[in-house]
Amino acid sequence: MNQWWRNAGLYGLFAIVTIALSTAVFAEQPQTLETWEYSQFIQEVEKDNVNKVSLSADRTRILAQSEDGKRFFVNLPDDPDLINTLVRNQVDISIVLELKDSDF
C-alpha cells in the first residue's frame, strides 16, 4: 500500500507542477501597442482624449495614453507647435531618454 501512496503522491506533484507551468506560460500575454498616425494623434489631443505623453529625448516618438487608459505610440514629424498643442490641451508631458512600454 505504501508504494501505491508514493506513486499517487508523485503523480499528484507532477500534475501540480504541470498546471503551474502551463498557467505561467499561457497567462496574459504582453499587450502590443499600436502605432497611431500623427494626424489622428493631434485630433485626439484637440478633443481632450489624450491625458499624458512620454516624449523621447530626440523628439521622434511619443508613448501616449488616452482618457480610457489605452496606450499607443506615435512617430513624430518635425512640428514646432507640438508642445504648445499639448500644453494648450492640458496633456501631462514627460521626457524620457528611451521609450519603453512601461513608461507610464
From TrEMBL:
GO terms for molecular function: ATP binding; ATP-dependent peptidase activity; metalloendopeptidase activity; zinc ion binding. Residues 10-94 form the Peptidase M41 FtsH extracellular domain. Keywords: Cell cycle, Cell division, Hydrolase, Protease, Signal. GO terms for biological process: cell division; proteolysis. One of its GO terms (cellular component) is membrane. Residues 1-27 form the signal peptide. The keyword Protease applies. This is Cell division protein FtsH.
